[in-house]
């Protein structure tokens, strides 16, 4: 790899200007001397100085104009690439100059532009993927609703069949409603930059209330809860924290077998609290655990009937706003443990390490 010297623009400009002036002065003096010697004009000193100065100015201007191309070349490349990005080409990249000497500012400009273009490309891919996922998630229940409603309109069904198909239409309509509600909630969270409400929250009591609110879900599966929650108090947004516990407990219920136990424990630290929600469910493969907080991500096709893959995305975004953290520990066939850490004050970031026990 060819060695390259990177200099600050001011130093680079000063050095090139001085070298150019010295070179032009030397060449002009030599030309005037040769002109005087070869032609025998015997120029007087003032005339020789005027001719030498004019030659220096002209040649210096031409050389400096040529050298300016090296200064503005990175900016020109970035301008051209910016035009391509404005037309939607986010794959464009600007190569670093291969000159022996480059300016520090030019190198940084190109590096920052390429980093920006990479981020824009990533956002573009994410947006297209999100649009495709939303379309797919809406298409499935809508197809079911259309299909069952056509059967109902054709008539000729027994009362039992009619009730069954009507129930399926109602079920798919509720699924669409939940999807739209989650999308709106996620959209509001994405647009939110700060937490407006700061109230004192008894987290242990809030979790117990969430368990009671979901009683209909876990009672039908004969699931029992083991709560080991000391007094946990924080300053935060109660609606946001409640949504976190509802989503995580609902997930634990959803993927737990009948007759299993869900354990919820809590602990406090000087500046943070930590809550662990552990189920005895089907577990998550290790290679998929890093993706579970991505929007619409589902570990396998069988999970599509149980949700849309937005619950953990909402939890992740809420915790980002509250300055909290979340981690997952899971084993196939043994269950999943979700570990949540929250700062005592949502105006601060959580410093509590949440590596699983």
Automatic annotation (TrEMBL):
GO terms for molecular function: phosphorelay sensor kinase activity. The keyword Phosphoprotein applies. Its EC number is 2.7.13.3. Keywords: Kinase, Membrane, Phosphoprotein, Transferase, Transmembrane, Transmembrane helix, Two-component regulatory system. The keyword Phosphoprotein applies. Gene3D superfamilies: 1.10.287.130, 6.10.340.10, Histidine kinase-like ATPase, C-terminal domain. It is an enzyme of class 2 (transferase). One of its GO terms (cellular component) is membrane. It catalyses: ATP + protein L-histidine = ADP + protein N-phospho-L-histidine. It is found in: Membrane. It holds the Pfam family HATPase_c. Residues 69-125 form the HAMP domain. PANTHER family: HISTIDINE KINASE 1, TWO-COMPONENT HISTIDINE KINASE. This is histidine kinase. It comes from Selenomonas ruminantium. The lineage of its organism: Bacteria, Bacillati, Bacillota, Negativicutes, Selenomonadales.
């Amino acid at each position: 790899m060819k060695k390259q010297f990177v200099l600050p623009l001011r130093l680079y400009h000063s050095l090139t200007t001085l070298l150019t002036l010295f070179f032009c002065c030397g060449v002009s003096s030599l030309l005037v001397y040769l002109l005087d010697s070869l032609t025998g004009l015997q120029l007087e000193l003032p005339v020789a100085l005027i001719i030498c100065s004019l030659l220096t100015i002209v040649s210096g201007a031409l050389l400096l104009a040529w050298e300016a191309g090296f200064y503005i070349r990175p900016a020109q490349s970035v301008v051209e690439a910016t035009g391509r990005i404005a037309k939607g080409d986010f794959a464009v990249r600007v190569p670093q100059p291969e000159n022996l000497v480059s300016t520090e500012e030019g190198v940084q400009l190109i590096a920052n532009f390429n980093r920006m273009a990479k981020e824009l490309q990533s956002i573009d891919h994410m947006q297209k993927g999100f649009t495709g996922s939303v379309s797919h998630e809406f298409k499935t229940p809508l197809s079911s609703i259309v299909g069952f409603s056509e059967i109902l309109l054709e008539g000729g069904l027994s009362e039992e069949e009619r009730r069954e198909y009507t129930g399926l239409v109602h079920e798919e309509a509720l699924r669409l409603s939940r999807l739209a509600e989650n999308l709106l909630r996620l959209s509001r969270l994405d647009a939110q930059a700060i937490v407006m409400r700061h109230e004192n929250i008894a987290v242990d009591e809030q979790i117990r209330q969430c368990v009671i609110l979901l009683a209909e879900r876990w009672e039908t599966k004969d699931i029992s809860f083991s709560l080991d929650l000391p007094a946990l108090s924080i300053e935060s947004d109660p609606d946001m924290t409640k949504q976190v516990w509802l989503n995580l407990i609902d997930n634990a219920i959803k993927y737990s077998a009948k007759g299993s136990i869900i354990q919820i424990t809590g602990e406090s630290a000087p500046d943070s609290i930590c809550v662990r929600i552990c189920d005895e469910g089907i577990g998550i493969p290790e290679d998929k655990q890093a993706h579970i907080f991505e929007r619409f991500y589902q570990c396998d096709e069988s999970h599509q009937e149980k949700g849309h893959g937005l619950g953990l995305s909402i939890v992740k975004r809420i915790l980002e706003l509250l300055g909290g953290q979340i981690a997952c520990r899971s084993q196939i066939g043994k269950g999943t443990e979700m570990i949540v850490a929250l700062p005592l004050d949502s105006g601060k970031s959580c410093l509590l390490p949440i590596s699983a026990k």
